[in-house]
Amino acid sequence: MRANAKKFAVTSLALASALALSVPAYADSDDIKIKEVEFRVSWDGGKPEAGDSRDFPNIEIVKGHCTIDESSIEWDDDDDEDWNRGERPTIYLTIEADAGYRFSGTDLSITKSSYKVSRRSGSDESEMNVKITLDKIAGDLEAVEDCWWDGRTARWEEIDDADKYEIKLYRNGSTVTTVTTSGNSYNLYPYMTRSGDYNFKVRGISNSDGETGDWSDESDDYYMNSSDVYTGAPPTSNTDGGSTVNGPSGSSTFNGSTGWLSDSYGWTYWLNGAMVKSSWIYVDNNWFYLGSNGYMATGWIFVDNNWFYLNPISDGTQGAMKTGWQNIGGFWYYLNPVSDGTRGARKTSYQLINGSWYFLDPTSGAMWANTYVPNGMWADANGVLH
User: Fold this and answer.
1) DSSP string of 192-242?
2) Model pTM greater than 0.70?
3) Three-state secondary structure call for residue 128
4) Which of 127, 191, 236, 296 can pair with 319 through a Cys bridge, CB separation 3.0 to 4.6 Å?
5) Distance CA 309, CA 335 (A)
6) By CB neighbour count within 10 A (0-12 exposed, 13-18 middle, 19+ buried), where does 67 fall?
7) In whole angstroms, how far apart are CA 91 and each of 57, 99, 100, 114, 130?
8) How many Å apart are CA 188 and CA 168, to the nearest integer?
9) Each residue of 32-73: pLDDT tens digit?
């Protein structure tokens, strides 16, 4: 929603970025068709960053036999005096064809570089309403102020604008591993395979612009003795699904150490003689989820604000997290195969997959096929949008 619309004079400055817009002819006229309009956009003092005051760019037309109606220029704004990370400055204006010229065509929406110009409703052959969407506002991330051990799980304070965190684990001053997660905790026990003093540090990462914050100070030391080191299968992925793995918990024990146990109710997993509960574990090259009662989950589960599908079939990988395209109950679903902090999570809405667009039901996640999707495109028998 636009708020506090403002007007500003357009001045001609050095080129910061340019976008050429082309539209096809569609009607006969004695006027000359304008087939291309080129805008020039520039910032006074350089592109702004988060925390800078809300100064807006200058716009001019450098090609197209048309002019900007300066009285039409307005932009989206809010009540903040400064820019916020992730915002996209959005400008609205009208351009008018010069005498003897007309705009050619009706379809105008071409993106180039990192900003977008599109034609808006109300345009005709003599004037064109335009929306210009510029780059997201970037800027420095804060450093993580505090981090600590909770058993063998690393924890830290969240920071604003961080979409994920990178954790570096050390043993006796030497690097053991670097992992990432979308949460503010991570179970490091599977990497603690040798006795010694372990500590870690953390930094934030922004997905919107790839910005990384400064590393936190190192945590206190956690001493791992030789009898308590992790002896299970080592993780093959250094990206956590964003869940908190609490390690050994509960009071039930058995005469063993680590591994799977089964009974008439199902499978449980044990670490150092204690049953794992309400946690993801990485075992046998797969992710599994142990419920609050300690038993391995199968089928659809809702965890960490996402839906996951765990193999319900006893085929040697029962309970393992499924990823990629899966046909479940006669419907196709797409489960995130990327280790980006939400691996295995069910995708919804419009998704670009292997170069093709699909529409996955916003509620169920099931792929739409042989029908029109909300934006008017046709989903063919394979779900590909046309």
Assistant:
1) --S-EEEEEEEEEE-TTT--B-PPPPPPPPEEE-TTTS--SPPPS-SB--S
2) no
3) strand
4) 296
5) 8
6) middle
7) 9, 26, 28, 15, 8
8) 10
9) 887 778 888 888 878 887 778 877 788 888 877 889 998 888
| Cβ-contact 201, 242 below 8 angstroms | no
Pairwise pLDDT comparison (358 vs 184), residue with the higher score? 358
Q: Copy the structure tokens of residue 350.
A: 């419009």
Q: Would you give the distance in Å from CA 369 to the centre of its chain?
A: 26
Q: How many CB atoms lie within 10 A of CB 279?
A: 22
Amino acid identity of residue 181, one-letter, is T
CA distance linking residue 342 with residue 367, whole number of Å: 19
Of 77-91, 131-145, 346-360, the least confident:
77-91
Amino acid at position 164, single letter: K
Q: Where do we find the tokens 């965890």?
A: 303
Angle value at C-alpha 53, between 51 and 56, nearest 5 degrees: 120
